[in-house]
Design brief:
Length: about 180
C-alpha cells in the first residue's frame, strides 16, 4: 500500500466503523474493521490510481468527514476537543461513499477488486487479500451487519455511486 494513502485509508475506515459499528464483541469489532479497511483500500486505490494521484492527495488532504457526519447525524457529537477528532480531516468522502457501495454490492465489489489488482497499487498483491470484502462468510456478515446494510449506508453510498460506476467503466489506469 502506498504510504501516501495510509492516513486516508486508516481515517476513512475508522469513520465507517464508527458510523456503522460492529455488534457482538471484540471478534466482531475486528471482523468489521477488516471489512471496512478492505473496502476503503479498494476504493482509495480506485480513486487515486497512480502514485502521482496518491502523492497529491497526501499533500492537499482529502477533505474531511464534515458532510458525512452531517448525513449520518453525527455532526456535533465529537465533543469540543479538536485534538481528539483531528483524524477526521483525513477522511475522504468519495472513498467512504465508494467503500459503502462495495460493501453493499458484491458484484460491484468483485469488479472493483479486479480493477485494482490490475492497477499500479496492487503490484504483487493477491486477490485473496480482499476476501472478506468480496466473499464474506457468515461471521463477517454478522459482525458487519450495519456496515453492509444497504438501507443504513444508502445515503453515504448514494453520494458518489455514479462516479464509482464511471471509474470502473474507465479502467484502473486513468487518473482522477
Amino acid at each position: 500500500m502506498p504510504e501516501e494513502l495510509s492516513p486516508l485509508i486508516a481515517a476513512t475506515a475508522q469513520w465507517l466503523t464508527g458510523a456503522y459499528p460492529a455488534s457482538g464483541g471484540a471478534l466482531a469489532n475486528v471482523l468489521c474493521e477488516m471489512q471496512a479497511r478492505q473496502a476503503v483500500t479498494v476504493a482509495a486505490w480506485l480513486r487515486y490510481p497512480t502514485p502521482m494521484d496518491a502523492a497529491l492527495v497526501g499533500m492537499a488532504g482529502p477533505g474531511g468527514s464534515a458532510r458525512l457526519d452531517w448525513i449520518t447525524g453525527a455532526d456535533g457529537v465529537q465533543g469540543g476537543d479538536p485534538d481528539s477528532s483531528a483524524w477526521r480531516s483525513w477522511v475522504d468522502e468519495v472513498v467512504a461513499s465508494w467503500a459503502a457501495c462495495l460493501l453493499t454490492d458484491p458484484e460491484l465489489a468483485g469488479r472493483a477488486v479486479a480493477a485494482v489488482v490490475a492497477g499500479e497499487h496492487a503490484t504483487g498483491a493477491p486477490p485473496a487479500e480482499f476476501r472478506r470484502l468480496v466473499t464474506p462468510d457468515e461471521n463477517d456478515r454478522r459482525a458487519a451487519a450495519l456496515l453492509r446494510h444497504p438501507d443504513l449506508v444508502g445515503p453515504v453510498a448514494a453520494l458518489h455511486h455514479a462516479q464509482l460506476r464511471d471509474r470502473l467503466e474507465q479502467g484502473p489506469a486513468r487518473a482522477a
